[in-house]
Amino acid sequence: MKRRTLLASAAVALALTGTAFADGHGKTKVGFVFVGPVGDGGWTYEHNKGRLAVEEAFGDKVETVFQESVPEGADSERVMTQMALSGADLIFTTSFGYMDPTINVAKKFPDVKFEHATGYKQADNVSVYSARFYEGRAVQGHIAGKMTKTNKVGYIASFPIPEVIRGINSAFIHAKKVNPDVEFSIVWAYTWFDPAKEADAAQALIEQGADVILQHTDSTAPQAAAEAAGGVITFGQASDMAEFGPMPRVSSIIDDWAPYYIDRVQAVMDGTWTSTSTWDGIGPGMVKIGEISDAVPADVKEEALAMVAALGDGSYHAFTGPINKQDGSAWLAEGETADDGTLAGMSFYVEGITGEIPN
Amino acid sequence: MDLSSINPVLLIASLMVSATPILLAALGELVVEKSGVLNLGVEGMMITGAICGFAIGVNTGSPVLGFMFAAICGALLSLAFGILTQYLLSNQVATGLGLTLVGLGLSSLIGKPYEGIKSPTLQKMELPILSDIPIVGPMLFSHDPMVYFSVALVAATWAVLKYSRAGLILRAVGESHDAAHALGYKVVRIRLLAILFGGACAGLAGAYISLVRVPQWTEGMTAGAGWIALAIVVFASWKPWRVLIGAYLFGGVTVLQLNLQAAGAKVPIEVLSMSPYLITIAVLVIISARGNHGAPAALGKIFHASR
């Protein structure tokens, strides 16, 4: 009984200090949970850049902590709890697999704000945010369809979750549009970050004739494999990966989290933070297309840039009908665009992709 | 499914590359076990070799120096194991497991500043004349030097163990350390040398992953290859050429698995992913069912001159 009172008062004290911080009486403490190492050169690297931008923007008023290479699952729950206990006011959990752990921990710490990336479960103190990477995938698909000579595009996928499937569909639709003969070979790596496996997967795809490698895993290993093979083009994933340009990396999708992170930290400081759902694309600048290198023919580059502009100002949607599902049933009618609900839960391939989504 | 898109020449070429780390590590462990010592720390020595080789490779720009340093680091780590088990007579299984944990921790500590850096890598060495042979040339004779080195090391190990006096002594120590001791051989010293050789091989194996196969440094990047190497030694019933077969078989299944996926084979990915492990287990079961393992008689037994 006594112990319980002690715990309860400790929790109250913690909650009090939490609000005190949020009121601006001290430093605002912001925690980040990363799925890979900050030096992965891709996904986590960009989130960490966002963290550094927060530090730069607020200087002494903010303190950031981060934990890298946190496995998705029970371990992440422990890490988040630790962060919350050590007085974090706001915690960003930056991978899809942290979704349920975030919700669980958020229940235990109602006064701590949580922000979960790429998920779909919201709560009073849990916001979700993601970027419309599929807009970038559309541009990649266009360039890939135009530039492939073997008509075979290799795709290193991570896990069969909506975000990854959306990317595959978007890239395929736009590659097919400019090159009806194009085929996608999809390899599921079942990891976000395992350089040896990613390199082997890229190698296998290249050996089977793929001359474009798209990746939805976080390391630069596929880029290195493509560079060694020669004559293969790749795209930077999550980060610019410019060190591999102009060949094999011909362009990239860059995630720019900094403005969002600064916004949200500001909101916590002002006490105006509310649970929101944010899904921004090229327009608001959360998704950026890295410089298209000279290895891409000028006319293709121009078309790609035009597409970037159209996606940015909203005059074009990456999923515009007519589009059928893989089994041939109609999904979008002529001119119809996909609604966010369907996109968020996308679990089917579009017509023309071979193979099945593993479950 | 379009299996014709899998090119057997390239498949075998990438199989050799994929199998080289486990081949090197297994060969080192084979010599260690032949001397009667069971070192379960292969994974730890590999990962330490991976980061040491990578660090030196990046700082000096020379992958060859990286490999040399990786071998030294692996050997140094195994020396700790050797002193503990040979002089202080600690339990080999426990010490070996401890060595793996130490290696994993140590490597991630050393490796922090090296994440996300590109390393210099070994150039492919086309063997003159041989690499021009159609089919066989690109399949077997256009690899980086470490692939040839690993195969040469198999031949050398086999020859030394089978035909040389040193090999005979090593095997004698492994079969019966008391008899070898009675004949006047320095059991502890010979075992220590074997352990150092095993450590150096594991170090090279790790460096091959971080300098050639990926080439990049990531925490825990050996991802269990050391354990596979241990299994392959048993699989091979302690014979060098069979180690080569075992390593290539394992490497082959891993590479084939990814190739089948890329070719769109309608096999569940989970089954493909676990197939290398299933095959290893199946072969181990078959070998133990046959009874004759060929294990050195004194394997894992502690030696003390007074007993």
TrEMBL record, chain A:
Signal sequence range: 1-22
The keyword Transport belongs to this UniProt entry's keyword annotation: no
CC per GO annotation: plasma membrane
Keyword Flavoprotein: no
Keywords: Signal
Domain ABC transporter substrate-binding protein PnrA-like positions: 27-304
Superkingdom of origin: Bacteria
Stored InterPro entries: ABC-Purine-Binding, Peripla_BP_I, PnrA-like
Protein name: Purine-binding protein
Protein's organism: Planktotalea frisia
From TrEMBL, chain B:
Pfam families tied to this protein: BPD_transp_2
Bilayer disposition of the protein: Multi-pass membrane protein
Domain of life of the organism encoding this protein: Bacteria
Chain ranges passing through the membrane: 6-25, 37-58, 64-84, 93-111, 145-161, 192-211, 217-236, 243-262, 274-291
CDD domains reported in the protein's UniProt record: TM_PBP1_transp_TpRbsC_like
Name of the protein in question: Branched-chain amino acid transport system / permease component
Lineage of producing organism: Bacteria, Pseudomonadati, Pseudomonadota, Alphaproteobacteria, Rhodobacterales
Subcellular localization(s) per the UniProt record: Cell membrane
GO terms assigned for molecular function: transmembrane transporter activity
Keywords: Cell membrane, Membrane, Transmembrane, Transmembrane helix
GO cellular component: plasma membrane
Provenance organism: Planktotalea frisia
Principal place of residence: membrane
